[in-house]
Design a protein that fits this description.
Strand order of the largest sheet: 3-8-5-6-11-10
CATH superfamily of the domain at 3-196: Jelly Rolls
Largest sheet: 6 strands, antiparallel
CATH class of the domain at 3-196: Mainly Beta
Number of strands: 35
Structural class: alpha/beta
CATH topology of the domain at 3-196: Jelly Rolls
Strand content: 15-25%
Shape: globular
Distance between the termini: 61 Å
Helix content: 25-40%
């Protein structure tokens, strides 16, 4: 099957996607052939299929499988079963590459893509000396494009790239290379002494250059650009459209972030030091179209492209673009304070989450999260003369929220609070803490007007309504791996947990816009929002459509839907068996006896609020380094909020180190419920801010806090100029409603 023969429904028209589809087709054919015994005749049929794959030379360009003087030979992983079953690699080498006689301990099929690889095959014969065998040459096979060689588990062969040409060859094995630890290599072509040799440690994955990635991000096809460093490292410097997906957290996050297994994925880090390790994990977990950014973000910058700092940057840049282009009106904290003191007709609404509002808020503000603004604002400001002020902790949600009310055409004058609660604190004023503010329930009259405004806003933003038939088609195409589909319920947590559609994720509307990259890892995917009330899904959809980069739809659930109760389920993927858990009281006893050491691996901020007494905090990808000098007699105990992340990290750490590693059953929540000792504060934090962006609000030192506020505000305002250097990322703003006269 050539590139021109690919079926029209193949996702993506790029080489990496075409290669992934061709490899899928080969593996399907090979699995069918090898359903029974892997005898010589069957393997020859597999070889014919591999020859056909290798003939598609355009799918395996040298640029995707680079070599240089420092790396004259390299194995690239193309596909590998999670259990280490079938595995497909591309072996690349500079002219003259050769290997001494060796076996594989499994069957192998090698087919050519480019260059001529001479295979000399030998029969191994025992001698009276158990440490020495004789090799008898049986045949020579030159493997070039259009030819292949089949090797059985006991076959011994040498390879050499001849004719002065570099080579690229496909290698298909019955077991993954990292599991072939009993292979032998001989001292010479006549045999003699032999030794076992270790599996290759540095298997790489197809590369994509910065220039090719830049083009791919603009070609309109689905693509997920994932930065695999810990989030706190990621926020210091990353590519704008990258989503944070830390390598050691894949098992918990990746299934929701990039649900379609055939998605074109590019992995980035600083310098490729983590990218190939992450690619290996993704491939084994079932994702089939994975490339690694050549040179990482350092290579991206060296190519002249922009790097960004901060978290949720596309969404925050969106807010700045809104204010810059639409001139969203604002009010200063001094003006607001004066008006409140005078008793002016004014309503201040905080567009953050209820949890953030409870943490701190303006003393007189009402909690009204972003998705709830159009839905509920008239209950708080029924008089058109009332000034509505929208605030948040910084800038983005104030601007987006205020402009949404303006664009929706509410009759009130609306402004954002310039620089939010940061500016309030910088002015020397105080915030309230621990306030609970139930959301006002809209009357039928206000619902009706809110629906009309939301419908108008969504229509102007290009949000499309779909019915059950269209959703079923989207779901079928997602199931068949043709298109990515994200389904979100944007209501409040309480409403979601009281009953939601099966398989739909909870993503409160304001947050899915404020932190889109945390919910949707795939650009140009389909996003469907459930519209229960005719307002919140539509206004959220309007935000997402203007942010750009996705197709946005709204679905009205059926009149009598089948509902699922409770919080959103999380599916945890795993490559290896979990280590046994340890009960909280057993862990406490071991910690007290000094036979165990406890590490918290979730988030530094959560650790500082409350943690297991005596625990240390470390990001998962530093654990191997930080535990290397611990006595072997000590059990390494890991904990996380609910124990889920700790279990996956424990399995990984145990496999890498050979140490006894246990996860606390139920995590820190279970530890606390058992009334075991806990502590607060930063003592025991070993990895600084590597896990998360450290908010200036966390600083106890007011001088550091205020300096952090100013630095953050300056950074956010500067995003407009930086975005102009980045180029068009799809932001398309709607005109305000004709009914509005701000």
């Amino acid at each position: 099957m050539s590139l021109t023969d690919l079926p029209v429904e193949t996702p993506g028209n790029d080489i990496a996607s075409a290669r992934a589809c061709a490899i899928d087709a080969f593996l399907t054919q090979a699995r069918g052939l090898l359903a029974g015994t892997a005898d010589k005749q069957t393997l020859q049929a597999v070889a014919d299929a591999l020859i056909a794959l290798g003939r598609q030379k355009s799918l395996f360009p040298a640029a995707h499988f680079p070599l240089d003087a420092a790396r004259p030979a390299q194995v690239y992983r193309l596909a590998e079963d999670a259990d280490g079953g079938f595995a497909l690699y591309l072996s690349a080498g500079l002219a003259g590459k050769a290997q001494p006689p060796h076996d594989h301990t499994t069957w192998a099929v090698i087919a050519g893509v480019e260059g001529n690889e001479r295979n000399v095959l030998y029969r191994r014969e025992k001698t009276s000396d158990a440490s020495r065998d004789t090799l008898v040459q049986t045949r020579t096979v030159d493997v070039a494009s259009g030819s292949a060689v089949v090797l059985l588990p006991d076959d011994v062969h040498t390879i050499e790239l001849i004719d002065g040409q570099d080579g690229r060859h496909l290698h298909f094995y019955g077991r993954a290379l990292q599991l072939l630890d009993r292979r032998v290599v001989f001292e010479g072509t006549e045999g003699g002494s032999f030794r076992h040799f270790a599996p290759p440690k540095n298997i790489r994955h197809p590369a994509i250059t910065p220039q090719a990635l830049k083009a791919a991000l603009q070609d309109g096809e689905e693509i997920a650009l994932l930065d695999v460093r810990e989030t706190g490292v990621f926020v210091r410097s990353h590519i704008l459209l990258a989503a944070s997906a830390p390598l050691w957290r894949f098992e918990v996050q990746i299934d929701r972030l990039v649900p379609r297994r055939g998605t074109r994925i590019v992995l980035a880090d600083a310098d490729e030091s983590l990218g190939h390790e992450a690619a290996a994990k993704l491939v084994r977990l079932g994702w089939r179209n994975v490339s690694v950014l050549a040179g990482g973000t350092e290579g991206w910058a060296a190519a002249g492209y922009e790097l960004f700092s901060g978290s949720n940057v596309p969404s925050k840049a969106f807010g700045e673009v809104i204010e810059h282009q639409k001139h969203t009106p604002w009010i200063s904290v001094d003006d607001l304070h004066a008006r409140v003191e005078r008793g002016d007709d004014i309503v201040v609404v905080d567009s953050r989450t209820p949890e953030e509002f409870a943490d701190f808020s303006l003393p007189f503000a009402h909690s009204l999260p972003g998705a709830e603004l159009v839905y509920r604002i008239q209950e708080l400001a029924p008089r058109p003369e009332t000034l509505v002020v929208v605030n948040c902790a910084g800038r983005t949600r104030s601007i987006v929220g205020a402009q949404t009310l303006i664009d929706a055409g509410i009759p009130n004058k609306v402004v954002s609070l310039k620089d939010g609660t940061m500016a309030w604190l910088l002015a020397g004023r105080r915030l309230s803490h621990g306030r609970a503010a139930p959301l006002p329930e809209p009357s039928e009259a206000t619902r009706k007007s809110a629906r009309a405004r939301a419908e108008d806003l969504a229509a102007r933003a290009g949000v499309r309504r779909i019915g059950a038939a269209a959703l079923a088609r989207f779901e079928a195409e997602a199931e068949s791996d043709e298109r990515s589909l994200y389904r979100f319920d944007v209501r409040t947590r309480q409403e979601y947990e009281a009953g939601h559609l099966e398989g739909w994720r909870w993503a409160p509307g304001g947050q899915v816009v404020q932190a889109t990259d945390e919910y949707v890892g795939t650009r140009h995917a389909r996003i469907v929002l459930a519209d229960w009330d005719g307002v919140r899904a539509l206004t959220t959809g309007a935000w997402l459509a203007q942010l750009g980069g996705h197709e946005v739809f709204v679905l009205s659930p059926p009149a009598l839907p089948v509902l699922v109760l409770g919080p959103e389920p999380v599916r945890v993927l795993a490559l290896r068996a979990f280590t046994p858990d340890i009960a909280p009281r057993e862990a406490a006893a071991a910690l007290e006896a000094g036979t165990a050491v406890v590490f918290d691996v979730e988030r530094r901020s959560a650790f500082e609020r409350r943690h297991v007494a005596g625990a240390r905090f470390a990001v998962p990808d530093r654990l191997q380094e930080l535990t290397a000098d611990l006595p072997v007699s000590q059990v390494i105990v890991l904990t996380s909020s609910d124990g889920v992340l700790a279990r996956t990290v424990a399995a990984e750490l145990a496999q890498r180190t050979g140490r006894t590693v246990r996860a606390v059953a139920g995590g820190t929540q279970a530890w606390s419920a058992a009334r075991l000792p806990t502590a607060t504060g930063p003592e025991g934090v070993l990895t600084g801010d590597d896990d998360h962006w450290y908010s200036p609000y966390m600083h106890a030192d007011l001088t550091k806090r205020d300096a952090g506020f100013q630095q953050y505000l300056d950074w956010e305002i500067g995003l407009v100029a930086q975005l102009e250097r980045e180029g068009d990322v799809g932001i398309r703003l709607v005109a305000p409603s004709g009914a509005v006269a701000p």
